[in-house]
Structures are given as structure tokens and as C-alpha cells.
Amino acid sequence: ASHPLALPVGVTLDRYIMHRQTAFPYATGELSQLLRDIALAGKIIHREVNRAGLIDLTGGMGVQNVQGESQQKLDMIANIRFSRALKNGGEACAIISEEDEDIIFTGNNNGKYVVAIDPLDGSSNIDVNVSIGTIFSIYRRVTAIGTEPSLADFLQGGRRQVAAGYILYGSSTIMVYTTGHSANGFTYDASLGEFILSHPDIHSPADGQTYSCNDGNLDSYEAGVREYLTICRQKEYTARYIGSLVADFHRNLLKGGIYLYPPTKKSPTGKLRLLYEAFPLAFLAEKAGCLATSGHQAILDIKPTSLHQRTPLFIGAPVMVENLMGHLG
Ligand code: AHM
Ligand code: MG
């Protein structure tokens, strides 16, 4: 059924956010502003990503940007840009990032939200012109407004997220996010400088024929995972693995598929990070009709204990995830 709040494809993200804000009586202007700040950071990172190959060149030519960033790796640049956009925006009181060991205090103790980010995920793809992404997760703080935020604000659990999403820098740049109702995608039109609603109310296929994992790790996967992958081959499913979680997730979300990062010898508790990789994608996945599990429990039910904790991740079409789980001990 078409949603009473539905807006036609082609509206801008700003317009969409404004519309949602008036449609939901409890939606706060602050969250809207925070989402706009994230979209702005996404535009800035889009720009950096698209001139990535020139960064060393401009450095070599002695062209220094004001922040002296020309010698820095793109993921560090993205981290700086993102943190700065959130600090300047004023709605986030604290940030955690894959690139920083500890909580980053923005200085805005009156901000109502905290944000967990992976500013540029897919590190092995950054220097080689392959799709990469930004992942974000937003909580309303539990500490009192006006005080210093703390670890507790970030360890509330995945079901307490108020918004989550990603920005994929691929053949085009797209931002997909949810505020807990529907999942929507906005493709970036660089000539306008606007994200445009292109994928309204995403419903992922219940089943799929694509599986995504690092086949080189196969020998160290547990028996149940190997069994499931054998079945995928017997059924002549398609193997697709970019090695950028956002890109693999996005493809599977639209086309139907499963992404697997099981525990391995090298990463016995899984490789991916709970707070800024698994939680936000799991939150989005559930809104789009997908499932996300660690193999033992729903990702969103995992109790977080530390900022950079890792988890195994199996995420995608519900029929595929359930079939896989039938093989896990
Ligand atoms: P990163 O945070 O260092 O970029 O690692 C996360 C990435 C994911 O984007 C991707 O799905 C996975 O690591 C690929 O890992 P591997 O190269 O081990 O297959
Ligand atoms: Mg990462």
C-alpha cells in the first residue's frame, strides 16, 4: 500500500527530510538537521573520492589545502571532513569513528545525539578506484543534555538507533538511510549538488541468488558455513564480492543476496565492527525486509560492550539467511 507520507521520486533530500519532519509529530528538527549534516559530509567526501587519484599529484605540485591534508590518506581525510561537519552542525555531542580509538567530543554538550561512523569503509579498495562507502548510526543520548557525553551513549544497543544508513561512492553516489520507518535511497546529482530521491521505500527481495564472501578464507570458515556455500554452488548461484561492505550490501539489498563475514582464523570473532558497520546495516536491513545475524543471534540483539568490538555478520535476503542458519551449530 502506498504510504500516506510518500513523496515522488525526484524530490531532493532536503525537501524529503522537511516533509518527514512535519508528517511525524515526534520528529525533531534536530534529527533533521543532523541528517542534513551527514548528507553534507557525504557530498564533501564524494568530492574527495572523485579526485582521489589527484591527491598525491596536487601534493607533489606543492598545492596544499588549508588543513595541510594533501599528504593524508583518503580515509583519514574522510574522517576529518565528517567529524568537522558534525561538529559544525551542532546536533551531535559526541562521535565514535573507526579511525579514532576514543570518543570524540564535539564540544556541543547541548547536542541531543551521538553518531557512530565508519567514514570510509573498504580500505583495500580506496587506492584502486573501486566502490567504497561511509556508514553511520545515530542514537539519542542517554546522558543528560548539557553534560559531557559518555560511553553509555554509544552502548545502548542496536535497537535504540534512531537513524542509520550509508553513502556509497560507486558508479554514482547514493545515500540510503532509515529513521526507523522505511528505507529510502537518494542518488547524488553532482551538477545540482543535491541528493535526489531515487529509491523510495526499498523492499528487498525475500530470496536471492547471489552470495558474497571472501572465498580465500573458505578453509577457516566453520563447517555449517562451508556447507551452505556448497549448496550455493550446487544451485549455481552467482558469487559477487567487491570487498567493500557498503557496495556488497547495497547490491544484495536491491537484487537479493546474502553477505557473509564469518569468523576466520585471522579474525576469530569476525572482522566487522558492531557499532559502526553491523548495527547500522542491520537496522536498515530489517526495515527493508532483510535479516542480519551473527550466527547465534540477531545482530540488533547483541549487547555492545566496547566501542570497537567485532562481530561475525550474515546479512541479506531472509530466505537465504534462514537457510544458512539451518546449517549453523
Ligand atoms: P575496513 O574497515 O578495514 O575497510 O574493513 C572492512 C571491509 C569491508 O568493507 C569488507 O566487506 C571487508 O572488510 C573485506 O574484508 P576482506 O578483505 O578480509 O575480505
Ligand atoms: Mg570499516
TrEMBL record:
Assembly and interaction partners: Homotetramer.
Single annotated GO MF: magnesium ion binding
Cofactor(s) the protein needs: Mg(2+)
Organism: Spirosoma linguale (strain ATCC 33905 / DSM 74 / LMG 10896 / Claus 1)
Identification of the protein by name: Fructose-1,6-bisphosphatase class 1
Keywords: Carbohydrate metabolism, Cytoplasm, Hydrolase, Magnesium, Metal-binding
GO CC, any one term: cytosol
Keyword Magnesium among record annotations: yes
